[in-house]
Specification:
The protein contains eight helices and five strands, in the order H-E-E-E-H-H-E-H-E-H-H-H-H. With 218 residues, the protein is of the alpha/beta class. It has a single domain, classed as Ribonuclease H-like superfamily/Ribonuclease H (Nucleotidyltransferase, domain 5, 2-Layer Sandwich). The chain has a five-stranded mixed β-sheet with strand order 3-2-1-4-5, sandwiched between helices. Helix 5 runs parallel beside helix 7. The longest helix has 22 residues. The termini are far apart.
Length: 218
Amino acid sequence: MKLFKKTSPDFPDFWKTYADLFKEPQNLDINELVFVVLDTETTGFSFEEDRILSIGAVKVQRGTIAVQEVFDIYLEQEKFNKESVPVHGLLKNGQRKCISELLALEQFLEYVKNAIIVAHHAGFDMGMLNSALQRNGLPKLKNTVLDTGVLYRKTLIKSYLVQPKTNYTLDELAEKYSISKKDRHTALGDAYITAVAFLKIISRLKEKKKLTLKTLTR
């Protein structure tokens, strides 16, 4: 019987370059890690039916936000939902320069590399990004992901009288840490708010014990 060698999918070079970054084990020292804090604005909440309108992200390393390395792109709107416009303010025929979904994914992968992704209610943003990757014949993101909502709960002291809520909104974190909400509901604005909240949370957690990537993801 003749055996056929199973061939891997012929992914584009930008995906191969991205995937190769994960072949080496990652440094677990939190001071050496690069975090990419991101947010997406979308036409709605369905991973299958809705689309990403914009992606905003900032890099964080050694307790500092690299404001000179921001990521801020807008995607062509193949789907338009007028009901979501009051939230994000993005019109279908607006003045912003927009790029295709595939090009947006390529640029995002070049930016994020093998960094640790941080987002508020990260499951939604990851779901939208992974759905976009799947539509373009690509695998899911390989990055480790942290959720500031989950991390914030770790800073709270549990007692019989006061129990932490299951979910905390980004607005609640902004109010808790006195973070300006000037650019709220823009992808880059929300990414920046999340990054500041992330640094505040990390500072609180460091007071309790030594932090590593393992303790953050546990």
